[in-house]
Amino acid sequence: MVGATNNGVPTNLHLNPEATQNYDPRAGNFVFERFAAYNFATGEFEMAALEAWSIEGQTVTLTLRDDLTWDTGEDVTARDVLTQFRLMKKMKASLWDFTESVEQGEDDKTVVLNLKRPSNPEVIKHTLANGSLRLFAYHPTFEQFLDKGAEELQQFKYEGDVVASGPFSVESKSKQSWELTRNPEYYGADNINFAGISLLSRGDNTALQQGLMGRELDFVTSLFAPPKIVANFPDSVEEVAISAKWGYGVLFNHDDPDFGKRNVRQAVAHVINRQQVAENAGPRTKAPAPKVTGVAPNDQETWLGDAYDSFESYGMAESQTDKAAALLREAGYSKEGGTWKHSSGRTLGGTYYTPAGWTDWTTATNTVVDQLNSFGFDFEISQKPTGDYFGGYVESNFKIGAFYWMPGGARSAFPYFPLRWQLNIPDIDGGHNFPEGEQTVPGMDGGEMSIDPLSEIQEVSTTQDRATTEEIIKRVAWHHNQNLPVLGLVSKLDQSWLTDDEWDIPEEGSDERAVKWPSEWLPRQGQLMAEK
Question: Where is region (Disordered) located (predicted)?
Fold first, then answer.
């Protein structure tokens, strides 16, 4: 089976997941087994390396499959997992946000996490089922780093004798490709009826698209392709669309004299027609957020419940210019010569940052800025290389710009993660400067509501009662809806690609396709097989 990696030339890449620079997850995800996976269609977790997990009080018990082995034929044991978890502690992995210590359980297939405090089971499960968490730490290889610093672990390029826990082993790598062979020691090896996988080195989206057009590639794990490109794919190429729990939004610098004002942020929200942004940026893969809050669009009605209709929509499919104008006048702005200005004479606008090369985001940014300037803001767009783009946000060197409004992936299906993320955005070291402490916003039922949103959402991580969790999420989501730490505009679907001319794959719409990523998950299940 032929796929591709666009993470670089394989000879420059390695398979140490803790050394993120030059680690190639495209190969690593075939070589290393995951602990568990989240199904985006069913909302359920599916076991992989784990036979079971149980959470009682401050104890999490993980039971490994009895038939889980390394490709050497040796059993994967608690010792291997403990080694990995202890190395993850050096790297400040999120597992250790709630874990005090780890130890072997009653046998060598059981691992116990001792928690710092009672913790929400959903937080623990999403952490363990995170798609980037793979079972890689073969103890004889990684034992040497237990007594060394994080820097030495990060410098280790795992590329020689890589020991696999997943369905494929590393045979070789070259400038042209990774060559992976079927691992006969894998517990699901009988589900795989082909010899291996070639991952060809391809530099960019265009090369990947051409690989599908010419049927050089049997699959592409993740690839954005606009409608005009998809129309040129052979009939044998099938798109698998999975919710990304991620999408385009607007980031404000809360220290800015203009965009640090709630009225101004709300005015921006009222002006932007989210439906038009989605249609322009990619109607096949984009959808407007029905409510502006930190909860993923498909999950809003479930989590907001009876309060859903009370949440401000800010006009999903229209520009509510009258409401925006009233908010600006109330905040001390007036329109002069078609442009809004503060009473001090300061023009309301500035530089709007967007990342260069993110083609769908470029279209979204052009739409947003056109809408805002038509209303009377005065923005100019600045496209920044990715490094400078993130760097400017980290250094708070901005007023307003494009940014994703959820951290993405399975964890964003549980609102605790995106609601907390919007307040401190670790991706930019909190460079949007959202203020800490108590905030006062209009109440759900009139009057005012005082809330410390970060403190409240953190309570979810230690709450084991579902009703309490729902109430906290509803309150913090209301705060985000009113105070707009980040303005969420659209969500997206991730596009994954399979082919069916030489391969048997699940039918379109089947739940089996909804684990990320199908090309990696389906062979494990016997759901992606060579035609006989």
Answer: 1-20, 278-298
